[in-house]
Amino acid sequence: MPSGSTRTGSTLPSELSSASQRQILTVTKLNRLARTILESEIGLVWLSAEISNFVCAASGHWYFTLKDQKAQVRAAMFRNTNRLIQQRPKEGDKVLVRASVGLYEARGDYQLVVEHMESDGEGQLKQAFEALKARLYAEGLFDQAIKRPLPRSINRIGIVTSASGAALHDALTVLARRSPATNIIVYPSMVQGESAAQQLIQALHTANRRQEVDVILLTRGGGSLEDLWCFNDEALARAILASEIPVVSAVGHEVDVTIADFVADLRAPTPSAGAELLSQDQSHQRNLLADCRKKLLRSFKTLLQSQQHRLQILSQRLRTVHPANRIQAQNQSLDRLQIALYQAMKSRLSLHQRQFERATQKLTYHNPQRQLVIQKQRLTTFEQRLSRQIKALLNERKQNLAGQVHLLQSVSPLSTLTRGYSITFKEQQPLTRSDQVKVGDTITTRLKSGQIISEIKGIEGDNKP
Of 22, 188, 284, 359, whose CB has the highest number of CB atoms within 10 Å? Predict the structure, then answer.
């Protein structure tokens, strides 16, 4: 019989006399002792269970029950820990938790204090992710030495993503704001599900076969590890490595990391960041153009000054060595000798007067005003010629730009729609043959303005490729 039971007869006094020798505990001490034993003897455990009775208190703490088919246990996850969980759990979720075993002393309830939580399937996916990451790293697929640099000038960007996803919208918004002149080509693909990896690989192959873009942006929005799993596909990783065109990976949010991020030539934390990385700010381009204009004007001014200086030097040299000057000097010497010979007997006053007249004539002949007029005429001619050349160059550049714009408009799909043509889709796939549909199917015809939704009543035509 337990020691705490009441006995009758002569044994009662002996029981009462031994009670003073027992260790009497309060309920508080008992619960505290039980908590200490649980925490020290069991410690941290990993537990796979289903969540029920989930409550998020006003304090931010989570309280819930972890159960399986035969048992259950209460659990708590405090605010400073649960804020690291990306997605709040809900009733019926299958989770894998790391928790310490303890006891809530106020009620004497045995409970778990959860430190980490993840989807039950996520643990296996993480193990597979780490194993593939280690194997590809050992093969050298992540080496920086084999990564291709991005082109210095990016005029055409290929985007591999879902045609209806938020990632495409974010990337196009950034590119339209920062670099509206950049050409964008979308290679649509699923970015989630069993067939997503194969479609992504096919989109990369299509971009490399066409060779119509300078760089490829591989992107999608955020999600769970399962949502992003197609970007951890080994075949996709090898397709990224084999791409002849540089690949930038922008998958999920900043905390999301995939195998594609390690293999790609460059990683961006988000789709918007990837678009900013590949685009050049329009204001920066305007500043570059303004700098080029200033450099061009300085070059023209320097060239003009150099030519003017050279012209002055040549003019001075010509005046110095010109034969006419020497002949004139000899003639003047001869005149002076003749005058001296025939008029030697004249008075000194007459001689001084004639010398003054000759000096006046010589000064008139070498008047700088005449040379100044000639140089001004030459300078005017050179300025007119330079102005005509600049105007001709600007006109030529304008004509080239207009030709490029006309060429772009002529090959635009929207231009084709403007001329009365249309494009017919079934489930977002373009139709090129009549055997791609059957009677009763719903098709969508896109016109220049709006679209028409039709139902197939009959099929005619040649189905040959």
Answer: 188
